[in-house]
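Fill in residues.
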């Protein structure tokens, strides 16, 4: 920018403000009293402009990723990614339904199961999370050395919070159909659920192995793995095809490689489709 251009812009600013910012003389220009008063605010405005541009500039703003809930497995996955790639800034959010945000560009990626293709969005299966059974101390399966999905038939599984039409509702409906399970979705959230399980021997619930649950030691709850086959929840990374954020590719590649190393994720069949109990693991056919 030339000196003449600077002088014109300063003159225009002075005209807009109605005050003189600089006193001009043979030895150059110096700040007037009004100019000295205006300077710190002008600097703040310039810093704010720089931060605003950085926030929306490609690759400069944090990668915004939805993890559904802070206590769930996707949050732990994202934490592990941040440790492996400390130079990638992240903005972790939780959305009950991230699809509108993905399409609008307010969210860059989300961890979801994907029962059917979503227009404008791409996905890749990145993490198979085994399910676990949580019971109270008096439940008939509380002391079992091994629990299979078939053994759950005839027992009520209370999973409050299932919202009809969501991907997890589809998953649990397919799981129930595959193994003849009875799933009750009405009731309060996680904390009242655990209290109820501790004192109700007829109830149990299912949680992902990566879900962090905390309860007082006096409840005596049991957390048991399911085997033969082990049902897994097929987490996929979902993103907008036109998303320009370069860190998205870094996250996607890390998750896919991690899934291969762990023996799950991209390309894994999951042990059969809905209604099939063959193999070591089970996941719905759409996974």
């Amino acid at each position: 920018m030339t000196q003449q251009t600077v002088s014109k812009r300063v003159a225009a600013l002075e005209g807009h403000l109605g005050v003189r910012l600089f006193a001009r003389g043979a030895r150059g220009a110096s700040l007037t009293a009004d100019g000295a008063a205006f300077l710190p605010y002008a600097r703040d405005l310039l810093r704010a402009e720089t931060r605003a541009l950085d926030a929306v500039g490609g690759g400069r703003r944090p990668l915004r990723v939805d993890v559904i809930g802070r206590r769930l497995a996707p949050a732990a996955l994202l934490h592990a990614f941040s440790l492996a790639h400390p130079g990638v800034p992240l903005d972790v959010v939780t959305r009950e339904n991230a699809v509108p945000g993905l399409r609008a560009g307010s969210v860059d990626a989300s961890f979801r199961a994907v029962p059917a293709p979503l227009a404008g969005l791409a996905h890749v299966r990145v993490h198979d999370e085994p399910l676990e059974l949580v019971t109270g101390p008096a439940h008939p399966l509380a002391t079992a050395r091994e629990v299979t999905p078939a053994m759950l038939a005839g027992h009520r599984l209370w999973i409050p919070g299932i919202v009809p039409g969501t991907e997890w509702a589809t998953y649990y409906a397919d799981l129930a159909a595959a193994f003849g399970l009875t799933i009750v979705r009405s009731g309060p959230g996680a904390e009242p659920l655990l209290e109820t399980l501790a004192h109700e021997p007829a109830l149990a619930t299912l949680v992902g192995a990566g879900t962090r649950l905390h309860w007082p030691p006096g409840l005596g709850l049991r957390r048991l793995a399911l085997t033969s086959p082990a049902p897994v929840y097929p987490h996929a990374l979902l993103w907008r095809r036109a998303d320009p954020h370069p860190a998205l590719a870094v996250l996607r590649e890390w998750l896919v490689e991690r899934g291969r190393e762990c023996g799950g994720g991209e390309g894994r069949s999951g042990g059969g489709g809905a209604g099939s109990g063959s193999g070591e693991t089970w996941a719905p056919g759409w996974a």
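Residues 101 and 166 are 16 Å apart (CA to CA).
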